[in-house]
Amino acid sequence: MLTLQLDALTTVALALVLLGLGAQLKKHSYWLRQLCVPAPVIGGFGFALVVWLLRNQQWLDIKLDTAMQTPLMVAFFTTVGLGGSLGLLRQGGKILFVYLGACWGLALLQNVVGVGMAELLGIDPLLGIMAGAVSLEGGFGAAAAFGPIAESLGTSGATTAALASATFGMVAGGLLGSPVARYLIDRKKLAVKADQVDTLQALEKANEAPSVPLDAAVLLRLLTCMLVIMVLGFWIGDALKEHLGIVLPVYVGAMFVAIILRNLNDRARVIEMPDNAVSTVGDISLGMFLTMAMMSLKFWELEQLGLPLLVILVVQVLIMVLLCVFVLFRLFGGNYDAAVLCAGYMGHGLGATPNAVANMGAICDHYKVFSYKAFIIVPLCGAVLIDIVALPLITWFINAFS
């Protein structure tokens, strides 16, 4: 069998081509748009599938140099931290805290279920964690970040298992979120009307920031700040590992340094970091990082893990459905807004925030009533605030069961 070795620059170039191809396929595919499948997943997953088929037929083995994957990953999570204003917590009101608490509780529940099922099925507990909050509530970013950590601790195939679980969760969250909400609304015969909450309207205004032109000066200032934060994050991670024996994903330190800097800067206004510039750099970093992560999927490593992994994921999905129907719907208020919130919860609890927004949009379009509450709270919690508790919790589980 022939072997084709791609260097780091060629791998990055290929990732950009696949990212663009994925975006075009999504643009022209109704079902891909409905499921909110990210462009990096479409392009990268398709390439990984081709690599697997070529290798399986003993024709060609393609090897990638993903040296740039880690810096891109850390850059993305740095932008996540720079977008995490803790001041929003004080303005969100009671419902924000209730929803956020449910999200934090889900991170614990998914890890407990993952470890418990792994022990029951006789596989490595770390693989159960990969099929828990790492890949489901954490999504592709956390899966690609924590998988190599588990592999470095001796769990073969952890990255592939985590990314495959994230793919499964994204599809399940996109398919089931809206039907669960419709079941709740129709079965409970809810009044189809949404609350108008003044505190949430204030929250939306507080979260709005004026866009500025993305010129060289703005990008230079932002990239300089990001690189300094990334270096500090690497130092923190190394120090914790050397002195306390705590193994952290490389991006965690940078993300928390970024959160601290963002909230200090909100008070002092020393550095101007426009949100549109931060989100643009973050989108580019995430797109390249996830494409490279999906390109690196090794399907052949799942041959012995397929059935146990599938069993764990099916159990996780069933628990999510039961949790939304019998517990969270009442906790969120038992009304139309609560049903829409459940659709969002299913979306990002199993997949990603775009899934959540798509689920809620489908429900609101169907009933012709917009849930202001849900569309403010779900993206805010799903995109940023979950990680404040979820990431340290995942790290604790990995260290505890390694």
TrEMBL record:
Sequence intervals crossing the membrane: 32-54, 66-89, 95-114, 161-185, 218-237, 243-264, 276-297, 309-329, 375-398
Presence of keyword rRNA-binding: no
GO BP, one annotated term: L-glutamate transmembrane transport
Membrane topology annotation: Multi-pass membrane protein
InterPro entries registered for this protein in UniProt: GltS
Localization (cell): Cell inner membrane
UniProtKB keywords: Amino-acid transport, Cell inner membrane, Cell membrane, Ion transport, Membrane, Sodium, Sodium transport, Symport, Transmembrane, Transmembrane helix, Transport
MF-aspect GO terms: glutamate:sodium symporter activity
Gene Ontology cellular component terms for the protein in this record: plasma membrane
Source species, domain of life: Bacteria
Biological role: Catalyzes the sodium-dependent transport of glutamate.
HAMAP family: GltS
Family: Belongs to the glutamate:Na(+) symporter (ESS) (TC 2.A.27) family.
Protein name per its UniProtKB record: Sodium/glutamate symporter
Taxonomic placement: Bacteria, Pseudomonadati, Pseudomonadota, Gammaproteobacteria, Pseudomonadales
